[in-house]
Design goal:
The protein contains four helices and no strands. The chain has helices at residues 2-96, 104-128, 134-156, 159-195.
Length: 199
């Protein structure tokens, strides 16, 4: 019986030692696998982060180029609109001096030039208004009524009605010209803002 107890005790110790060895070996292998997994996970995360960073930088550069192109286009539109407005207001001034000419035919020719310059300005404005601030857009639309109505009155007037009408318009057009000057100032302010110069 003593031999059986020794045998069982020895076997139990041997079994405990083997169990401990297996447990230690398993723990060691698992911790080694965990370390390898951690390293792989970290490596993949760094690679994904680098790819995402590169992708974001590329997208940022595309947006910067697109915005730069839009700013360039906006600058071009404002320059063209400004020069068309200057030309148109000069034609309006010549047109409003009509009564001094005492020549109805010449007055109608000046009226045609005024109307053509105004049409060119307003058509360009309508085609490119998306590039303008809302306040500037509404100012131009507000000015449109004054000049368009002035032209329509003259266009519909008979030769006898035109001189008194021009005298009346001569008194009304300075207010419209004041609006045009205000708009020129706003366009110039927008141009200076894009160019980065002080107003």
């Amino acid at each position: 019986m003593e031999d059986i107890i020794k045998f069982l005790g020895g076997a139990t110790l041997l079994l405990a030692a083997v169990a401990w060895l297996i447990r230690s070996l398993t723990g060691h292998l698992l911790s080694k696998d965990i370390e390898v997994f951690k390293h792989q996970l970290k490596s993949e995360a760094e690679k994904d982060l680098a790819m995402l960073t590169a992708s974001l930088q590329l997208e940022n550069e595309r947006l910067r180029i697109k915005l730069s192109a839009l700013e360039s286009r906006r600058l071009e539109v404002l320059e063209d609109l400004f020069s068309r407005l200057v030309y148109f207001t000069k034609r309006a001034e010549v047109f409003s001096w009509g009564p001094e000419l005492n020549d109805v035919e010449e007055l109608r020719k000046d009226g045609e030039k005024f109307y053509d310059s105004y049409t060119s300005f307003y058509q360009y404005f309508e085609e490119h208004s998306i590039f303008l601030p809302k306040t500037l857009e509404s100012d131009i639309k507000f000015m449109h009524d004054d000049y368009y109505n002035a032209w329509m009155k003259v266009e519909r007037a008979s030769d006898e009605e035109i001189k008194p009408l021009m005298e009346k318009l001569k008194n009304e057009l300075p207010a419209a010209r004041g609006k045009a000057i205000k708009i020129r100032g706003k366009i110039a302010e927008n141009l200076r803002e894009i160019l980065g110069v002080e107003s």
